[in-house]
Automatic annotation (TrEMBL):
SMART domains: PKS_KR
Domain Ketoreductase, residue spans: 5-210
Highest taxon of source: Bacteria
SUPFAM superfamilies linked to this entry: NAD(P)-binding Rossmann-fold domains (SSF51735)
Native species: Yinghuangia aomiensis
Classification via Pfam families: adh_short_C2 (PF13561)
PANTHER family the record matches: 3-OXOACYL-(ACYL-CARRIER-PROTEIN) REDUCTASE (PTHR42879), 3-OXOACYL-[ACYL-CARRIER-PROTEIN] REDUCTASE FABG (PTHR42879:SF2)
Family classification: Belongs to the short-chain dehydrogenases/reductases (SDR) family.
Protein name (Swiss-Prot/TrEMBL): SDR family NAD(P)-dependent oxidoreductase
Length: 251
């Protein structure tokens, strides 16, 4: 079998992660991952193979230590070559107002959006065995915006932490491993396509009106930024905001 560099893309059964997996499959073997949506994950593998690439699906919950260990053990056994890249994309956003906060809510947001990325990065670097590699963390414009957002404090705090974690790991892992982040703005994935209520639909329309480019982004546009950072040999510790100008607006 031809040896190809392998990339692990967490949470790549749908949305941004799916687009990242398809984009990176142009040059690499891809390990597609999801916690629940195994059928969706296998479909992404089929799409990659149909486009001439190669991929495998591994079901694992990357918000837990055991899930991360399972993912990398399985990834090592299916990889077509060394695993030299990791995209920490899996994430969960839940809107919970201040009065309804609970330790369980904060733990879920922090594990899913921050701690899991730290654990997966540790497992990735461990298996490199001193070799070179690159990590891209998918954070969020919520982690950098100047104005607080009502209802998603825990998610925003976790994403801000992920941006800080990116800088810290970039410093600690240099020069062998580069670590960067992409912070997407509103991107057209399932969370915007199926709003839970009419009120949510109106809120989403208002957000769109405040994006200077006047539209939500395509997952493929975020995937291009991830691909750039994985290959940008002079860049580490950066956070590339890809948000159609949202963080510069007063929305
Ligand atoms: N869409 C946006 O506007 C936007 C904006 C800023 C940042 N982001 C960030 O971009 C990333 C992708 O978002 P998206 O909009 O594409 O979301 P999505 O469509 O809901 O996809 C999330 C993916 O992550 C997987 N996942 C979730 N928790 C997981 C876990 N514990 N272990 C393994 N896989 C897990 C999901 O699969 P299962 O559910 O089957 O496990 C799915 O494949 C997230 O980190 C999100 O915070 C999105």
């Amino acid at each position: 079998m031809r040896v190809k560099q392998t990339v692990v893309v967490t949470g790549s059964s749908t949305g941004i992660g799916r687009a990242v997996a398809l984009r990176l499959a142009r040059g690499r073997h891809v390990v597609v991952n999801a916690r629940l949506g195994a059928d969706d994950g296998r479909r992404v593998v089929e799409d990659i193979v149909a486009a001439g690439g190669s991929a495998d699906f591994v079901q694992a919950d990357v918000s837990t230590e055991q899930g991360v260990a399972d993912l990398f053990a399985a990834a090592a056994s299916v990889a077509a070559g060394p695993i030299t890249a990791l995209v920490n994309n899996a994430g969960v956003a839940r809107s919970v107002p201040f009065g309804e906060w609970s330790s369980a809510h904060w733990q879920e947001m922090l594990q899913a959006n921050l701690v899991g990325c730290a654990l997966a990065s540790q497992a990735f670097v461990g298996q490199l065995g001193g070799g070179e590699g690159a990590i891209v963390n998918v954070a969020s414009v919520r982690g950098v915006e100047r104005f607080g957002r009502i209802g998603i404090a825990a998610y925003s705090a976790a994403k801000a932490g992920l941006i800080n974690l990116t800088a810290a790991m970039a410093r600690e892992l240099a020069p062998g491993v580069r670590v960067n982040a992409v912070s997407p703005g509103f991107t057209d994935t399932r969370i915007f396509r199926d709003p839970a209520s009419e009120e949510d639909r109106r809120r989403i329309d208002r957000w769109r009106d405040h994006v200077p480019l006047g539209r939500f982004l395509a997952p493929e546009e975020i995937a291009d930024a991830v691909a750039y950072l994985l290959d940008a040999t002079a860049v580490t510790g950066a956070n590339l905001v890809v948000d159609g100008g949202w963080s510069q607006s007063d929305g």
